[in-house]
Amino acid sequence: MSQLREKGWLRSLTGVEAPAVRLLCFPHSGGSATAFSDWAAATPPGVDLVGVQYPGRGDRFVEDTVDDVAEMAGHTVAELLRLPRSRYVLFGHSLGAVVAYEAALLLRDMAEEPGKLCVSACLPPGHMRKRDIHSLPDDMFWEALVGLGGIAPEIAESAELRELLLPALRSDLRAHATYQPACGTKPLLCPVTCYHGSGDPLADEGTLARWAGVTTGDFALRVRPGGHFHVTGDVAGLVSDVLGPAPV
């Protein structure tokens, strides 16, 4: 049986006991740990694929949402460090990128810095655009989100599902919009890789290069087809790149 707690912040998607590496994946706004379920088949033996489950969705739907990136990262890291130690690779998509970054800082401060931080479809801390999207009226807010392509048509057209999803989406986007690293934050030491989906309207390639400033380690920028939700395409290639070639 997995050692990950039910209804906590972490969900093992591969159930690997005593893994050599934990690949910890932080979902986008409105997303849940199951956003990374398709990655399980591409995850090699010895690596435990772990999705972060924010409150207010999935099996935590009845819980109050958390609209603070540092608090989200703090809960995740606290739960992670209750598990047997392993090496860590952190991957965050969109909102998840800044939560993963904040988690990497916390781990670093506890002498548990990850072997690698991977960020996706997200401008560097302090560079987010459209900071007021979470305050738009419901119809405009929903239209803007559907336009990014991450909401299935059957959900986009359902008024009932829209009403269920809006609170978590607003909370997550508020968390992203208001996030700023603490003053005097020191850079990480680990390698950082940034993934960009070509044509992503929320993250221009030129600004993404500034993610290099969050670390003194190696930095790489990878461009993939697929726009903001490029992570759903060529999953095997993406997982392989996330786990290597940088040492973990």
The shape is globular
Query: Which percent range describes the beta-strand content?
Result: 15-25%
> What's the CATH topology label?
Rossmann fold
Secondary-structure-derived class: alpha/beta
> How far apart are the first and last residues' alpha carbons, in Å?
26 Å
Count of β-strands: 7
Strand order of the largest sheet: 1-3-2-4-5-6-7
The second-level CATH architecture is 3-Layer(aba) Sandwich
Mean pLDDT: 88
Order of helices and strands: EEEHEHEHHHEHEH
Total count of domains: 1
Helix content: 25-40%
CATH class: Alpha Beta
Over all CA atoms, what is the radius of gyration? 17 Å
List the total number of helices: 7
CATH superfamily: Alpha/Beta hydrolase fold, catalytic domain
> What characterizes the major β-sheet?
7 strands, mixed
Walk me through the structure.
The protein has 248 residues and is α/β, with parallel strands linked by helices. The protein has one domain: Rossmann fold (3-Layer(aba) Sandwich). The protein is built from seven helices and seven strands; from the N terminus they run βββαβαβαααβαβα. α1 packs across α2. The model has no long low-confidence stretch (mean pLDDT 88).
